[in-house]
Amino acid sequence: MSPARENRLLTLPNVLSVARLPLGGLFWVALAEGPEHPELTFGVLAVAAATDVLDGYFARKQSGGHPAGIGSWLDPVCDKLFVGSVLAALYVQRRVPLSVLALIVTRELLQLPMALVYRASATLRRWLRYDFRASLLGKAATVVQFLAVSALIINHALAWWLALAAFGLGVVALADYIRRAIVIGKRHHHH
Predict the structure, then answer these.
(1) Which of 121, 153, 127 is nearest to 46 (CA)?
(2) pLDDT tens-digit readout, 9-24
(3) How far apart, in whole angstroms, are the C-alpha atoms of residue 138 and residue 116?
(4) How many CA atoms does the CB half-sphere of 109 hold within 13 Å?
(5) What is the per-residue DSSP string for 79-118?
(6) With a threshold of 0.85, does the pTM exceed it?
């Protein structure tokens, strides 16, 4: 793919990523229907999950399997904003304890300041090479986050345990991202 094409905002993968932003607002509306009618809420989550899977699929197909251009950072930003909207709705509308929500979103809470420091530090960028592609651990953490949110939507007793699992997997996934950045950075310096 040419660099000009990679940096275009209006590509199918980028449109799918950005679609999660209005879905975050729609989640608020759906959640307001109450726990006795979770179908619309689960529908919004399903559509958001589908856009996340499809944007990655089409981005890899268009770029030959490597993260490139705007989509390499737009997708994770849209993910974080959607998750933030969902968790805010659960807090405001359902009064889910902040401790449970913090467990679910720990990876993002730790990853954001790390990414900002990385972007701001030329020294870190010289030594580390951050790979924005999701790892298997990162994808597993996301699935468990969705399961925890689903349990909260229907007030299921497993919500607390799923939040703990999301916390554990999120921290391990974050450690793996750091490990990958170091390995890729070392490889880059050896060449």
Answers:
(1) 153
(2) 678 888 999 999 999 9
(3) 19
(4) 11
(5) HHHHHHHHHHHHHHHH---HHHHHHHTHHHHHHHHHHHHH
(6) no
